[in-house]
């Protein structure tokens, strides 16, 4: 069973439908108890960092998410769901994140010719060791991005994928069975569905 966190900031039904397409059962909830007890958890997200943190606090979801991420149960953050894992975000001000991983979320500062937001298909580069949920053809895989901010982890060892958009940035992190992507796997066709399938079938590591 996949649990998808509802805090009114993500394309929840798209994520749920993608999980169902790969044969997984997924339900959407904002119940802190269900989130705390989840077998596998997805934190999607679209929108602003500060607004998202305010909504998580309003729904009493901050502590359940922080506690879950300290276990080794499978977790997948998507787009804003990646950014919220870090200490600080600077979108529209300075806001405290979940603090699961040290680092910050900053706005793209790109040379002429590179529009912000970064929107559309792009390839990724693997930072070994490879994450077990990644497709086998990852070196040639395209994924779909829509974002103006990106994460800067304090620990480079958590970076699983990078992407080049007028300069390199972190496209995915991994710590144990905690994964999070800047791209949208649910919008990334076959490669994204393969990543979601592998997440759903992931063998939990001790």
Question: Could you write a compact summary of the structure shown?
Answer:
With 206 residues, this protein is an alpha/beta fold. 24% of the residues lie in helices and 32% in strands.
Give descriptors for this structure.
24% helix, globular, alpha/beta, 32% strand, 206 residues, 6 helices, 8-stranded mixed beta sheet
Could you explain how this protein is built, in words?
The chain is an alpha/beta fold. Helix content is 24%, strand content 32%. It contains six helices and 14 strands. It has an eight-stranded mixed β-sheet. It has a four-stranded mixed β-sheet with strand order 6-5-7-11, with helices on one face. Strands 8-10 form a two-stranded antiparallel ribbon. The longest helix is centred in the C-terminal third of the chain and has 12 residues, at 189-200. The model has no long low-confidence stretch (mean pLDDT 95).
Tell me roughly what share of residues is in helical segments. 10-25%
Determine the CATH topology.
Rossmann fold
Total beta strands: 14
pLDDT average, as an integer? 95
Determine and state the CATH class. Alpha Beta
Low-confidence stretches are none
Q: Report the total helices.
A: 6
Apparent shape: globular
